[in-house]
histidine kinase (Deinococcus phoenicis), 437 residues
Amino acid sequence: MKSGVLKLPAFSLRLKLTLGYALVFILASVLGAVLIYLVASTQLTRSLDTTLEETAAVALGNIGREDGALRFAADLNVRSELALELLNGQGQVTAQVGEKEDLKLGLPQAGFQTVQDWRVYSVPLEGGGWLRVLRPTDLLSGLLETLARVLVGAALLMIVLSCLGGYLLADRALKPIDQVALAAASIARRGAYRERVPVAPGGDELTRLSTTVNAMLDRLEGTIEHEKSFTRMAAHELRTPLTTLAGRVELLLDRPRDVAAYRAGLVQLQERIGALRALSEGLLSLARTDAPPLLERVELAGTALGVAEDLRPEFRAAGKILYLDVEESWVQAEPEGVRQAAVNLLQNALKYGGPQVTVRVRPGELSVADGGPGPRQEDWPRLLHPLERGPGVQGISGSGLGLAVVAALARRWQAELRPEWSERGFTVTLHFPEGTG
């Protein structure tokens, strides 16, 4: 036997809203009916009390004494449903006008009281004694009972109408959501990511919902198109080196060769494999820039110093001098990304720059000045795209991904990649937003 928490059946949002609307209407109807009943009861009772007070006022002018006892005047007339009594100080009735039931009233008390379906009003008399005016409450009770039945019937009718009205309101409120859900399901089923869901009219929450869904579809379309473009680009760029590798392998196997020829062929294959590995790593780095950024505090100077030390042997082998001019600088970025950006900028300076390269770190900035002429200014925007290379550099190894990766990383960090051409040479600066450290 399985034990666990009892699960309630799942209700649709439409039913939940209907029950919610109905509950509100029911509570309002019940509270309204109770309030009406209480107000009516109070008003009717007050009217009855006013009648008793007026009768008592008339009776007070028609009271006299006969043989030492209180008596009503002979010409005193009262309404048939009323009864009047005169009582001595001991509470004994000395005179009565009208008929009443045998009530257990006890000693009189000033003011109003209700005894056995009779409303009683007692007034103390000067010189002792009491005047008591009585009236049955059967008419009042009948009116209140009739009102209660009417209110109960009206409340039941309101419950039915509230359920119907709640369903209609819920259906009207959820219809735009149903349209958005059906459109989104159709887009997902057919893979038609270029289509959009209908925007609900007005400026309410449903409008914001449909607008947000369309914005998500816009982002999804951009991602899909980017992935398609990236896949085509990667396939195109990998086809050439793979074809070259296959051709060289076939050439080596075409006929027997001596050890020196095989060795030379393997060295060429090793160079091609190295270029292919660099291309694949560049493509992988570019693909990683699409992931959500995980920002943290990064110290630019320490990163730049570490990269410079790693690349210094390559600069020394190329006969170039690497200068460092750094200050402490903290930014919000990704440690591996900052290192990758510094490596790419320094490798570009190593390949295409002059004999002296300077790495400069200032608050919020990482600059690499290569001492060379740099690319043509009109070519700069194009070089920020993947696999784009400047004219006249075909003889230099490279994949055309270095600047593209740096530009993509800068966009992830809300940073800016700034080129500068001057008489001293070409400088690229990675500028971070102020206050990010």
About this structure: The chain has three domains: 13-141, 205-273, 294-391+398-431. Residues 43 and 49 are 10 Å apart (CA to CA). The longest strand covers residues 118-124. Helices lie at 13-60, 138-190, 205-254, 259-288, 300-317, 335-352, 380-383, 402-412.
